Amino acid sequence: MELAEDVKTSLQKLPSRRVQELVVEVLQELKWVGVEEIEVTPGSSLGDGLMALIYRVRATGRLARAEKARASFVVKHTPRNKARRDVFDVPMLFANEHSFYENVVPALSRHCGPLAVAKFFHSITDGEHDALILEDLKEQSFRLADRRKGLDLRHCRVVLAALARLHAASFVLKEKNAAAFEQLRPRVKDMFWDADREFAFKPFTTSCFEETLRTLKAYFGGDDHENKYIEAFLRLSERGYDFIAASVRSTASRLQVVTHGDCWTNNLLFKYADEQPDSPSDVRFLDYQLTRITTPAADVTYFLFTSPKCQTMTDNYDHLLNSYHASFSSILEQHHMDPEKIFSRRCLDEEMARMAPYGLTSAGIVVPAVCVPPEFTPDMDKVLGQTRDDFVQEYAKQMKADTPEARLQLASLLKHCVDRGFFKDL
């Protein structure tokens, strides 16, 4: 397909020639015979993406019979900063997400129907110019919520229903074709908590424990050993990365499902009924780089501890779990499966309690990004250093958790865990 010089110039705003060529390949697969105009713009705000650069590509052109054509894509590309790529092993993250779209989505959708994911077009996983091309969900009126406001009850119920469908799809696949589910295990890798990932993420997690402890001390004040909440967090931080990793990995086989792995506000796009911001009607999940096979409670606790208004979560905790489990049960019942035998409401409570330390640890990593004011949001590609340790140290300096909002949210989450007895066995 011939491209005009101005179209070629516009494409050069994408970070590599291979990605530019891939965009053209996608258009050709859509039966385009000519491109009249291409516009490339940033696809996210500063700080919205830690492990990737996002671009939006809008194109107008022609189909075979001179019909007008229009398309819009999101291009997700590896970061430029070497230390940033190294600390997160970005090529492996892109390979994980590629495998999710290429292998996992078709398998899970076969029996349960569409999941809350964007349409996948193409990817590059060469370790140098890693990229994915996905449909632009903003063209369907999906949009990000304001991460700093926190999600209300309606938004939470929509997200939990979509998570329930994702998790139920694994149980349905196990029931219909257990061998097909087993074939998914090597297709996704836990990039944070697998035993061979300790060298990469233990320093990062340890740094986040230290920052969270400073934040909690600023909130509670007084003598650490006279405060049951600080004492509980000290016990958790002393057990550290190894304890959390073991919690994620020790899920009973019968309860293991494909999970999102990174379900927080910035990875959620909402659609609204009649464009009313208080009436979300649908949601799509973004960013499956951290997808893993583990307990459903890992996703639920991660979402509830990072994304709602804190009081919304703590005041409505049981209601939210009821909402999740009702959606989950409905899907299983459609397939003539008994949710009480597979993943009962009581079992959900037990798993949520078991995974609460994981949830609070995740909150210590994510909540600073949620609460940081826009004017203080760090540019990850400007973090100094060329090694993993350099990046961890510089990131910790730039992304301080110690804002009033972060102090309140992390302290409220810790109180929630301790008061409900989730930390009694630490």
From TrEMBL:
Recall the GO molecular function terms of this protein's record: ATP binding
| Chain positions recorded as ATP binding sites | 76
InterPro entries found in the cross-reference section? CHK_kinase-like, EcKL, Kinase-like_dom_sf, Protein_kinase_ATP_BS
Q: Where is the CHK kinase-like domain?
A: 132-334
* Pfam families, per database record: EcKL
Q: Which UniProt keywords apply?
A: ATP-binding, Nucleotide-binding
Chain segments annotated as transmembrane: none
Please give the name of this protein. Answer: CHK kinase-like domain-containing protein
